[in-house]
Specification:
Blueprint (H helix, E strand, L loop, with lengths): L7 H35 L18
C-alpha cells in the first residue's frame, strides 16, 4: 500500500500537540526555577536525615 498525503486533520492535531508540548515544557521550567530558588534560600543540606550537623549551614 502506498503512503497517502497527510489529511488536514493530522496537521491540526500535530499543531495542537506542539502547543500542548510547549505549555508542558513551560510548566516544567517554572517548577524547576521555583525549586532552584527554594534550594538556594534554604542553603546546604548535609544529608538525607535532616539532622543538625556541627559546621553545617543551617538557616531557619
Amino acid at each position: 500500500m502506498a503512503i497517502q498525503a497527510e489529511h488536514e486533520l493530522h496537521g491540526r492535531r500535530k499543531s495542537r500537540n506542539v502547543g500542548v508540548g510547549l505549555v508542558l515544557a513551560g510548566f516544567i521550567a517554572i517548577i524547576f526555577g521555583l525549586t532552584v530558588v527554594k534550594v538556594e534560600q534554604i542553603g546546604a543540606v548535609d544529608g538525607f536525615d535532616n539532622a543538625n550537623v556541627p559546621g553545617a549551614a543551617v538557616t531557619q
